[in-house]
Write a structure and sequence with these properties.
single chain; 487 residues; alpha+beta; 3 domains; 43% helix; disordered N terminus; Portal_SPP1-type; Portal_protein_SPP1_Gp6-like; Phage portal protein
Length: 487
């Protein structure tokens, strides 16, 4: 992308530039959009989403061909052409997201009141939905975009925009500071009684949002908005417009190259789809018997097939030499099976997934074996987790700004978000290790590592309460005759 010129210069006054040179700036915006939509990253975004949804493009385009009477290569519409889609990416991405986010993240801070303010401002849907959608976007498209805004009721809200709609204008080569963001999308409107799809182009700057429509290949101001630019915030109800002081988009990167997971396994998945489909084609062909005819007239073969299907018999002209023999081709799938098994192992290895084949891992793998099985997934999640933590720190800056605008004190306390991964363990082995360690570590540490415990603090409180109840019950017992006791 072009940077450092025109409206893309880091120190540019966007409002003045747009006012003075609107047409030129709009052309620059469209050039940026065109460059982005022609880029490899955009291509991989579309590909990643398709493979996650099970719309594997290579097998979908597969055709069978033949040569016609003029020796021209044409599509053979009658050929068996099974198209088997294997949704490896759906499983790989879902495993990754669930492993990282199945348990709600923990916010750690010395000020409990501040934690409550953060949770109240972000809302529970952020932890239950937004984070998951962000991780899916980053995994499938290389980068996920969280947008921060204040709704009409004055509430702090977040949205996840599809990454293929977002054209970031970075001010540094490391892609850490946003200079502006362009968003392109289609919206349906009714023009009179006619429904029309409108291409929208929104430019997000430090001052606000410039809303455009793409009409006739050129940008025109979107008349649905009275302000140009539209401000992000207002100070108090009906107050003066203001801004966040930065671009209200937060990036979550899948890796430092901003490429999706599909890039590293696409060719393997395509080959798996192709070979499994060819295998299916072969089995369909093999089910059809080949008839060898001896002493049979030159009757049309279509009529012959009809007689066999209807009568299960045919007439032979020469009773002595004639005859009919059905040949069924032999099937040897050993080579196919070996290739499929190796392809699957390669997809899991290079896709950094988890092998769920019990024949390979056994029914009760040890803790060491489980750590080895999850090592690839751990490495893949480490990169995404680092980006999520960076994004959360950026998000807290917006939260603090919002709290200040609403008149709430913002304590200067360091905050950390901890992702509680859904780690698989051998429960029997883990319980034995916990029991064997109680003499040398604290009860709290031992309880926190028990596989059945979700909240160590709550568990310790429950244990203490049960002990008190038992002591109270024993204390209230009174002795009676015949060495017996009763309540």
């Amino acid at each position: 992308m072009a940077t450092g010129v025109g409206i893309l210069a880091p120190t540019i006054n966007w409002a003045q530039q747009l006012k003075n040179n609107g047409l030129d700036d709009r052309q620059i915006i469209m050039e940026e959009v065109g460059t982005f939509e022609r880029s490899p990253k955009y291509h991989w975004m579309i590909t990643g989403e398709r493979y996650y949804l099970g719309d594997n493009e290579a097998i979908a385009r597969k055709q069978k061909y033949k040569y016609d009477a003029k020796e021209q290569r044409v599509v053979d519409e009658d050929a068996i052409n099974n198209k088997l889609v294997h949704s490896f990416m759906h499983n790989l991405v879902d495993d990754k997201v669930a492993y990282l986010l199945a348990k709600e993240p923990t916010i750690k801070c010395g000020n409990e009141a501040y934690i409550e303010l953060i949770r109240e401002t972000l809302g529970q849907p952020f932890f239950e939905q937004r984070l998951e959608t962000l991780c899916e976007e980053a995994s499938n498209k290389g980068i996920g975009w969280l947008y921060v805004y204040i709704n009409e009721q004055g509430e702090f809200k977040t949205l996840v925009f599809p990454a293929q709609q977002i054209v970031p204008i970075w001010s540094d080569d490391d892609h850490t500071q946003l200079q502006a963001v362009i968003r392109t999308y289609e919206q349906t409107e009714y023009i009179g009684s006619r429904k029309e799809n409108i291409k929208r182009v929104d430019l997000y700057t430090f001052d606000g949002v410039y809303h455009y429509d793409l009409r006739g290949g050129a940008l025109a101001a979107n008349t649905n908005y009275k302000d140009f630019p539209t401000p992000y915030l207002k100070r108090g109800k009906g107050g003066a417009p203001t801004s966040w002081g930065t671009i209200p988009f937060i990036a979550v990167k899948n890796n430092s190259y901003e490429y999706p997971d599909i890039k590293f396994v696409k060719s393997l998945i395509d080959d798996y789809d192709d070979k499994r489909s060819e295998n299916s084609n072969f089995l369909d062909v093999a089910r059809r018997l080949v008839w060898v005819l001896k002493g049979y007239g030159e009757e049309d073969l279509h009529k012959l097939a009809g007689k066999i299907a209807h009568y299960n018999a045919i007439n032979v002209d020469d009773a002595t030499e004639g005859g009919v023999e059905a040949i069924s081709p032999s099937i040897d799938l050993g080579g196919y099976d070996t290739h499929f098994a190796q392809l699957k192992r390669d997809i899991l290895e290079f896709g950094q997934g988890v092998n769920k084949n019990l024949d390979d891992i056994g029914t009760a793998p040890s803790g060491v074996a489980l750590k080895f099985l999850y090592s690839g997934l751990d490495l893949k999640c480490n990169k995404l987790e680092k980006s999520l933590k960076t994004a959360f720190r950026k998000l807290l800056e917006f939260v603090d700004t919002y709290l200040s605008l609403t008149g709430k004190a913002v304590p200067k306390e360091p905050v950390e978000i901890i992702f509680n991964r859904s780690v698989m363990v051998n429960e029997s082995e883990a319980i034995q290790n916990v029991a064997a360690s109680t003499a040398i570590i604290s009860r709290k540490t031992a309880i926190s590592h028990h596989p059945w415990v979700q909240d160590a603090e709550q568990e310790m409180s429950d244990v203490a309460e049960e002990q008190e109840d038992e002591e109270r019950r024993l204390y209230n017992k009174a002795p009676v005759t015949n060495n017996a006791q009763q309540e």
